[in-house]
Specification:
Number of strands: 7
Number of domains: 4
Number of helices: 12
Radius of gyration: 42 Å
Shape: rod-shaped
Oligomer: single chain
Helix content: 55-70%
Largest sheet: 3 strands, mixed
Order of helices and strands: HHHHHHHHEEEEHHEHEEH
Strand content: 5-15%
Structural class: mainly alpha
C-alpha cells in the first residue's frame, strides 16, 4: 500500500511539474510577443504608420511591416541620393500588398524561368531588371553570360523592357506566308503528281499521306516559283529545305515516266567509247521490254537523233496539258 501511494504521489508531482513548465513557457512566449509588439509599434510611430492593436489579423500586420520596410529603403536611397521615384514605388507596393516571402517567391520563379528559357528569351528577361543595375550585377544575380548581360542593356536602351533582339546573323527569318506559299506550290498538280500506287504513302504525324512525285527538277521548280510569285523573296537552299517529306524529287527527265522520256534518258547514258552500250524500251509481242543494245557511237547518236523530234513534241504536249489542267482547277 505504501509503495502504491508513493507511486501515485510521484506521478502527480510529475504532472504538476509538466503543467508548471508548460505554463511558464506560455508566459515566456506571451511576454516575448508583447515585447516585439511594443518595439514594432515604436518603429511604426516613428514612421507614422498605424500601430498594432490586434496581432491576430496577419494580413494587416504583414502589410504594415512591408510598408515600414519600404519606407526604410526610401530613406536609405535618399541618403545615397538615389534618383528613383520612391513615392510612386511605395504607392504601387501598397496596392499589391505582397509580403516579403511572396516577393522572394516571385523572384525565385523569375530566376527559374530564366534558366529554362532559350538564349534569345533569356536576353529579353534580363531587360526587366532594375534600371540601376549594370552588367556585372545582372551577371551575378541571374548567373548569365557577359554577352547576354551586355546585349540586354543595349536592347532595353533602344527598345525598352522586354524588347526583342534583332537577328544579327545577316539572314532574316523567313516570313510565314512565304513558307506556306512554297509548301502549297510543291503540292500543285503541275509541279508534282500523286502516286498511282495506293499503298505508296508516308506516315506524317501518325497520319497517312500519299506520296507525290515531282514533274520538274528542284531547280526548275525554284525558277518557276520566282516567276509565279515575284512578291515572295526566298533563297534556293531555303526553297529546297521547305519541300514536304511526301513530295519526292524527280529524276533527270523531269516529267512523266513514259517510254519516250525513259528512252531518251537511257540513250544519254550510253558510253562514249567507240563501242557503245545502251538500253532502250521496245514493244515486242504486245508488251514493252527493256533491251540491251551494243553498237558504235555513231549508231547511238543516230538513235538519239531519231527520237529527238518525238521526244520534244511529247514533252511539249505533256507540259501544256499539265499547265492547262492546273488553270482549270484554279
Amino acid at each position: 500500500m505504501q509503495d502504491d501511494f508513493e507511486l501515485d504521489s510521484g506521478r502527480k508531482n510529475s504532472e504538476y511539474e509538466k503543467s508548471d513548465s508548460s505554463s511558464e513557457d506560455e508566459v515566456a512566449v506571451s511576454h516575448e510577443q508583447d515585447h516585439i509588439k511594443k518595439r514594432l509599434n515604436d518603429v511604426f510611430s516613428i514612421l507614422k504608420i498605424e500601430t498594432i492593436i490586434d496581432t491576430r489579423n496577419s494580413d494587416i500586420l504583414c502589410s504594415q511591416v512591408n510598408q515600414a520596410c519600404e519606407l526604410l529603403q526610401i530613406m536609405r536611397d535618399n541618403i545615397l541620393k538615389d534618383k528613383k521615384k520612391n513615392t510612386e514605388l511605395l504607392e504601387e507596393d501598397k496596392s499589391l500588398s505582397l509580403t516579403l516571402t511572396e516577393k522572394n517567391e516571385l523572384i525565385n520563379g523569375l530566376k527559374k524561368l530564366y534558366h529554362v528559357s532559350n538564349k534569345q528569351e533569356q536576353i529579353r528577361l534580363l531587360t526587366i531588371a532594375p534600371t540601376g543595375w549594370g552588367r556585372q550585377k545582372l551577371q551575378k544575380f541571374f548567373d548569365s553570360s557577359e554577352r547576354q548581360a551586355r546585349r540586354s542593356l543595349e536592347i532595353r536602351a533602344s527598345k525598352g523592357v522586354l524588347g526583342s533582339s534583332e537577328d544579327l546573323r545577316g539572314n532574316k527569318l523567313l516570313d510565314k506566308a512565304v513558307a506556306e506559299a512554297v509548301i502549297k506550290f510543291y503540292e500543285e498538280d503541275w509541279i508534282s503528281r500523286i502516286s498511282t500506287n495506293k499503298s505508296d504513302v508516308l506516315l506524317i504525324k501518325k497520319q497517312p499521306v500519299p506520296k507525290r512525285f515531282m514533274l520538274l527538277t528542284m531547280g526548275e521548280a525554284f525558277e518557276q516559283f520566282k516567276i509565279n510569285f515575284p512578291q515572295h523573296v526566298i533563297g534556293r537552299s531555303k526553297f529546297f529545305d521547305l519541300k514536304p517529306r511526301h513530295v519526292q524529287p524527280t529524276r533527270f527527265h523531269d516529267t512523266c515516266c513514259c517510254i519516250y522520256h525513259e528512252n531518251f534518258d537511257l540513250l544519254l547514258k550510253g558510253d562514249e567509247d567507240e563501242t557503245a552500250e545502251w538500253t532502250n524500251w521496245k514493244r515486242t509481242d504486245k508488251r514493252v521490254a527493256l533491251q540491251q543494245i551494243t553498237g558504235t557511237v555513231s549508231l547511238l547518236l543516230d538513235c538519239i537523233d531519231e527520237q529527238w523530234k518525238v521526244f520534244l513534241s511529247h514533252h511539249y504536249y505533256t507540259r501544256t496539258q499539265q499547265s492547262y489542267t492546273a488553270n482549270i482547277k484554279e
